[in-house]
Design goal:
The N and C termini lie far apart (97 Å). Residues 32-52 have low confidence and may be disordered. This protein folds into 2 domains: 1-72, no CATH class; 136-254, no CATH class. Helix 7 runs parallel beside helix 11 (238-245), helix 9 packs antiparallel against helix 10 (219-236) and helix 9 packs antiparallel against helix 11 (238-245). It has helices at 2-9, 11-18, 33-39, 42-45, 58-64, 81-95, 109-153, 155-163, 168-209, 219-236, 238-245, 249-254. 9% of the residues are buried. It contains 12 helices and no strands. Belongs to the ABC-4 integral membrane protein family. The chain crosses the membrane at residues 126-151, 180-200, 220-239. GO terms for molecular function: ATP binding; transmembrane transporter activity.
Length: 256
C-alpha cells in the first residue's frame, strides 16, 4: 500500500496524468483500449494474444509506472531460501479452503528454475552414464581379447605347466593373477591422475566463478574405483582363462 501511495505521489506520475503522450517515449496515446479494439477487424482482434501489439494507452502507461490502486501482481524478493519457504507456506495456508476467486495465484520462479536445472542435470547424468556403460562394455571385450591373445601365444607354456603337474585351476589362476595385477595398476594409476587434475581444475573454476575447491575426490570413492577396475579386469579375462585351463596338455606341447 505504501508503494502504491508513493507511486501516486511521484513527480513522473503527476506529470504523466497531465499529458496525453507517453512521457518516456513521446508516443501519442490511443484514446481508449476499447476504442482501439473497435476499429480493428474481428479476424485480427481474435489473434491479438498471438503476438499483435496493441497501441499504448494512458491507463496502461500509468499502470506500468505504479499509479494503479488495484495491483495486478506483486513481486516478492526474499532475502534467503528460508524466508522464501515461509512466504510459500503463508500463501498455501491462505489459499486453503478458499474459493477460486479468493485464492492467491503465485509463481515460485526460484523453484521453477531449479526444476529446469535439475531436469538438465538429470538428462546430462543419464547421457554420461550411457557413455560410461558403453565404455565399460568395450573395456570388458578388449580385456577378453587381450587375454585370449595371451593364452594363444603361451599355449606351449600352458602345456609345460600341465606336464609339470599343474592343475586346470592353477593354469586359470595364472591368468587371473595377471589380470588382477593389470586391473590394480590401472585403477591406482587412474586415481593418481584424477588427483593430479583436481588442482588445476579447481584453480580454473575458482578463477571463473569464485567458488573454491569445487572438485573433490573422496578417498572412499577412490578405493571403490580402484576395486571396480580390478573386478572388471578379472571378469573380462575369466572366459579366456577357462579356455587356457581346458587345453589338452599334449596338444599344447606340440604347438609352436
Amino acid at each position: 500500500q505504501m508503494f502504491i501511495e508513493d507511486a501516486m505521489k511521484s513527480e513522473i506520475v503527476k506529470a504523466q496524468k497531465e499529458l496525453y503522450v507517453n512521457i518516456l517515449t513521446g508516443e501519442q496515446f490511443a484514446s481508449d483500449l476499447f476504442n482501439v479494439l473497435s476499429v480493428i477487424p474481428p479476424d485480427i482482434t481474435s489473434r491479438l494474444i498471438g503476438g499483435i501489439t496493441l497501441p499504448v494507452t494512458k491507463r496502461n502507461t500509468l499502470q506500468k509506472l505504479g499509479a494503479f490502486e488495484t495491483p495486478v501482481s506483486v513481486v516478492l524478493y526474499p532475502k534467503d531460501f528460508k524466508s522464501k519457504q515461509k512466504v510459500l507456506d503463508y500463501l498455501d495456508a491462505w489459499n486453503e479452503g478458499k474459493s477460486d476467486e479468493d485464492r492467491v495465484i503465485y509463481i515460485d520462479l526460484a523453484s521453477t528454475i531449479t526444476g529446469l536445472l535439475d531436469g538438465v542435470l538429470s538428462a546430462s547424468t543419464i547421457v554420461l552414464l550411457s557413455f560410461a556403460m558403453i565404455s565399460l562394455a568395450v573395456s570388458l571385450i578388449m580385456i577378453g581379447i587381450i587375454t585370449y591373445i595371451s593364452v594363444t601365444e603361451r599355449t606351449k607354456e600352458i602345456g609345460i605347466l600341465r606336464a609339470l603337474g599343474a592343475r586346470k585351476i592353477d593354469v586359470a589362476r595364472v591368468f587371473n593373477a595377471e589380470n588382477f595385477i593389470i586391473g590394480a595398476f590401472s585403477g591406482i594409476f587412474g586415481v593418481f591422475i584424477a588427483s593430479l587434475l583436481i588442482l588445476p581444475v579447481n584453480s580454473i573454476i575458482e578463477r571463473m566463478t569464485g567458488l573454491p575447491d569445487v572438485a573433490y575426490l573422496n578417498p572412499l570413492f577412490a578405493l571403490g574405483l580402484a576395486a571396480a577396475s580390478v573386478i572388471l579386469t578379472i571378469l573380462g579375462g575369466l572366459i579366456p582363462a577357462k579356455m587356457a585351463a581346458r587345453k589338452d596338455p599334449v596338444e599344447a606341447l606340440r604347438s609352436e
